[in-house]
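Example record for the data management plan.
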Amino acid sequence: MRKIYGVLSMILDSAVASSRVAVNVATDAKLPRLPASEHVYLNHRQVEDLAAAAGEFRTFLAPKAACSGTTTSGAGCSTLPWLPRPLPTSASRRTSCGTAASLAIASGADVKVVQMMLGHTTATMALDHYGHLFPDRLDEVAEQMAAGRAAALAKAA
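Corresponding structural encoding:
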């Protein structure tokens, strides 16, 4: 629908420029919000199965970037050794980067590590994309803070 709107808006812009119509009524049209897309991430077993399914192409495991970002070393997220290249058509660049992020976060990576690994300009960008994957650790942090406070007070007494 957005593509159709874009084409219609360009046609009406042209019509306004050629004085065929007075105004482009599509200029400020409110389009419906896009539904949130489903996030698809592979687990370690699925990544291995995907690599096995690549058959003879398994030797091409991740020599090139599968996502647009690069790390500080200049390597993209798919330089991780378990991302098969070429990726099967059912796997997208977004899926491979999302998989890299989800596995890294599950392994304890913080947002700065994810940012550098995927080549995001800022940690905010990494959080915008993958913030939902970080576990809620409020209780854990509160317990650690209480333990630290108790230890400091016991030491002072």
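Summary line stored alongside the record: The two ends are 69 Å apart (CA to CA).
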